[in-house]
Write a structure and sequence with these properties.
Monomer. One of its GO terms (molecular function) is tRNA (guanine(10)-N2)-methyltransferase activity. Its EC number is 2.1.1.213. With 345 residues, the chain is of the alpha/beta class. It has 2 domains: 150 residues, VC0802-like, CATH 3.30.2130; 183 residues, Rossmann fold, CATH 3.40.50. It has an 8-stranded mixed beta sheet. A 7-stranded mixed beta sheet has the order 11-10-9-12-13-15-14, sandwiched between helices. The radius of gyration is 23 Å and the shape is elongated. The chain binds S-adenosylmethionine (SAM). S-adenosylmethionine binds next to helix 7. The site of S-adenosylmethionine (SAM) has 22 residues, from helix 7.
Length: 345
């Protein structure tokens, strides 16, 4: 079985990095092939694993818009013949819609949707077209002259990332990152459901929410008690129950158990927001303090501004850098997302 992932193109590397991290930590046996930016093919999935992998991907991914199961690989020229050869009763029981997604392809979207719809209708009794919320969504994904005939069996909850934006939560404070980036960072930290994730600068809880929603236990701490309380309010609002929050300076942090991963967005720039720690020193203090709170081989995914060189600090404390990505925020600020691992000594 093959799955096609249609990904966000808001960043050139993060969506694929997130997908690879999930495949790695979920121990998925498959081959990844990038067709073009925003379109990734997952191949060689056994029938036994197919639904399990599919459901895991739609539950976890932030920067992927849609996952579809490939029914047949066709071409613009052979599309009509191949559509007619498919036994559609296996895929459609009541109603359906056909939607075309193009990647650098000359396919005529409207004509292909109409033609495919009428060919399918001509082959099946007792089904009809339903354009809004169909039971079966048939996807034609065209890359150049190739057309993948696919079906969306499980939907990603795209609405979640809109509905949970920082200003829509009961406790709001400026500076929280987008839920999609928070989800991506949780995934880059290679955690699985049931693992314990820590955010020692939890603020309003944006990262903890995303970790909680994929089934992790979460712990958050913040030097500011209002933030600690606000995080709890937001976690309750999202229905997350397996959490603990603490009001503690990162330098004093001593966890009740070692954590499986740390995902965080430390404060930078303004000394008043760092609990009296001067400028970039917050990063150094953070690395030293967090090290003993992490299990061996645990991952840390963090954001930082481009002008802070984390590398010497990472080395000195006993971490190693795994991957790093830049997100341009504006002309004078690039946010760096670093994936770091605690070395097993
Ligand atoms: C950039 S915000 C985190 C935003 C968070 N990801 C969210 O979704 O709201 C940084 C947080 O670090 C906290 N903080 C600053 N200095 C700290 C320190 N020394 N120890 C622990 N927390 C600190 C601030 O109170 C602030 O809430």
């Amino acid at each position: 079985m093959e799955l096609l992932c249609i990904q966000s193109q808001e960043h050139d590397k993060l969506p694929l990095a997130e997908l690879k991290a999930v495949i790695e930590c979920e121990d998925m046996e498959l081959d990844i092939s990038k067709i073009t930016e925003g379109l990734i093919l997952l191949k060689d999935i056994s029938d036994e694993n197919s639904d399990k992998y599919y459901q895991t991907l739609v539950k976890r991914l932030g920067y992927t818009h849609e996952v579809d199961e490939v029914i047949f690989k066709s071409s613009i020229d052979d599309l009509e013949r191949d559509i007619l050869a498919i036994d559609w009763s296996r895929y459609i029981s009541k109603n359906f819609a056909v939607r075309v997604k193009r990647f650098n392809s000359p396919i005529d979207t409207v004509a292909a949707e109409r033609k495919t719809g009428s060919l399918i209708l001509s082959k099946c009794d007792n089904i009809k077209v339903k354009l809004k919320k169909p039971d079966s969504l048939i996807r034609l994904i065209a890359y150049e002259n190739t057309v993948y005939i696919a079906i969306e069996k499980f939907k990603l909850n795209k609405k979640h990332f809109e509905e949970i934006k920082p200003h829509k939560r009961p406790f709001f404070y400026p500076g929280s990152m987008s839920p999609k980036l928070a989800r991506c960072m949780v995934n880059l930290s290679r955690v699985n459901s049931g693992d314990l994730v820590l955010d020692p600068f939890c603020g309003t809880g944006g990262i903890l929410i995303e970790a909680g929603l994929i089934g992790c236990k979460v712990a958050g701490s913040d030097v500011n008690w209002k933030m600690k309380n606000g995080s709890a309010i937001n976690l309750d609002y999202c229905g997350i129950t397996d959490y603990r929050t603490f009001n503690v300076d990162v330098r004093e942090l001593k966890m009740y158990e070692k954590v499986d991963s740390v995902v965080t967005d430390p404060p930078y720039g303004i000394s008043t927001s760092t609990g009296d720690i001067e400028g970039d020193e917050i990063f150094n203090e953070f690395f030293h303090s967090i090290y003993d709170n992490m299990k061996d081989d645990a991952y840390l995914c963090m954001a930082s501004p481009h002008y802070v060189d984390l590398n010497p600090m990472i080395e000195e404390v006993g971490f190693e850098l795994v991957e790093q990505y830049g997100i341009k925020m504006h002309r004078s600020l690039t946010r760096i997302i670093s994936v770091i691992r605690k070395k097993n000594v």
